[in-house]
Specification:
- Residues 17-70 are annotated as: Disordered.
- Residues 30-45 have a biased composition (Basic and acidic residues).
- Helix content is 70%, strand content 0%.
- It has helices at 3-8, 10-22, 28-41, 55-59, 77-144.
- The radius of gyration is 31 Å and the shape is elongated.
- The two termini are 47 Å apart.
């Protein structure tokens, strides 16, 4: 049975609803446990801050703007700094145009990495909840198991 079959054939949907109505009502304790499990599995509010691991790349994503021009040379340093600044001022429009696509790529890449990071955090949280649930179920099964008989 596929979803499109349920949407297109009302008789099949009604048949499924009838079968669901015949199911026994679960005990209140199980309903409450399932309700708590559902509440625990809901996503927490998303923080809008960038992950710490992506802060440094985010600050460097725009490659169009260089660090301030400096030089460690005492004699020719000021001349070199003047030449660097002049070159940058003169060619900045061309640099911006050449680097525009790189900046767009960097932004898209960082957005993708942030999304992957959030998904990984969500998956780790869900995995921890599943592990806790499986452990609880295993403990209940072990408590309900009759003592082993010797052979």
């Amino acid at each position: 049975m596929r979803v499109d079959e349920l949407l297109m054939e009302p008789t099949l949907a009604q048949e499924l609803a009838d079968e669901a109505a015949r199911l026994p009502v679960p005990p209140a304790q199980e309903q409450e446990r399932l309700r708590h499990q559902l509440e625990a599995s809901e996503r927490p509010p998303q923080d809008t801050a960038w992950p710490q691991v992506l802060q440094a790349p985010r600050e460097k994503q725009d490659t169009r703007y260089a660090d301030p021009a400096t030089s460690h040379r005492p004699v020719v340093g000021p001349v070199l700094v003047f030449a660097k600044r002049s070159f940058r001022r003169l060619f900045q429009p061309f640099i911006n145009e050449v680097m525009r696509r790189q900046v767009e790529f960097n932004e898209a890449l960082l957005d993708s990495l942030a999304l992957i990071y959030d998904e990984q955090r969500e998956n780790a949280r869900a995995q921890a909840a599943w592990r806790k649930d499986i452990t609880e179920r295993l403990e209940r099964l072990e408590q309900a198991r009759p003592p082993d008989r010797e052979r």
